[in-house]
């Protein structure tokens, strides 16, 4: 059983890492009071009329690997949600996976489950640089 689980996880890791294309949505709440996005408002990220949310195409093997690790960690939770920060500022879409993250990029959530995962510093720096360049 362990071998099958390990083989499945390894296969998913290889397949998911094959494409480093990611679309990142960033929510800038600095202009609004009390306009946080929680887990009931994820659809706000995809409202094209909302000027406080910007999308950025990214190509990053490093970030793609990190997002894959987060997906695997979430899938292993089996519906046991870890601490939920509550407010989300980022959405990352790679292939068919969508992950949401808090401001510090330390708490991650798919539709139903969340996990604490600290991105490596290189991936965090890539994200911050893309946002800084857009200002």
Describe this structure in words.
With 135 residues, the chain is α+β, with helices and mostly antiparallel strands. It has one domain. It is built from three helices and six strands. A six-stranded antiparallel β-sheet has the order 2-1-3-4-5-6, with helices on one face. The radius of gyration is 15 Å and the shape is globular. It starts with a helix and ends with a helix.
Short key terms for the protein model shown above:
135 residues; 35% helix; 3 helices; six-stranded antiparallel sheet; alpha+beta; single chain
Describe, in short, the structure shown.
With 135 residues, the protein is an alpha+beta fold.
SSE blueprint:
Elements: H1 2-17, E1 21-27, E2 53-59, H2 61-77, E3 90-94, E4 97-101, E5 107-109, E6 114-116, H3 121-134
Antiparallel strand pairs: 1-2, 1-3, 3-4, 4-5, 5-6
Q: Rg from C-alpha positions?
A: 15 Å
Largest sheet, strands/sense/barrel: 6 strands, antiparallel
Whole-number average pLDDT?
A: 81
Structural class designation: alpha+beta
Oligomer: single chain
Unreliable stretches (pLDDT < 50, length at least 5) are: 1-17
Count of alpha/pi helices: 3
Alpha carbon gap, first and last residue: 50 Å
Helix/strand order: HEEHEEEEH
Q: What's the total count of β strands?
A: 6
Question: How many structural units, i.e. domains?
Answer: 1
């Amino acid at each position: 059983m362990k071998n099958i689980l390990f083989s499945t996880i390894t296969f998913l890791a290889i397949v998911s890492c094959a494409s480093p294309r990611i679309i990142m949505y960033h929510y800038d709440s600095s202009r609004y009071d009390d306009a946080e996005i929680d887990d009931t408002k994820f659809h706000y990220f995809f409202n094209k009329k909302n000027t406080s949310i910007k999308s950025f195409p990214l190509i990053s093997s490093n970030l793609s690997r990190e997002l894959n690790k987060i997906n695997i960690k979430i899938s292993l939770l089996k519906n046991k949600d870890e601490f939920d920060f509550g407010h989300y500022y980022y959405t990352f879409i790679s292939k068919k996976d969508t992950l949401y993250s808090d401001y510090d990029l330390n708490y991650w959530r798919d539709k139903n489950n969340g996990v604490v995962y600290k991105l490596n510093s290189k991936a965090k720096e890539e994200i911050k640089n893309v946002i800084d360049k857009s200002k």
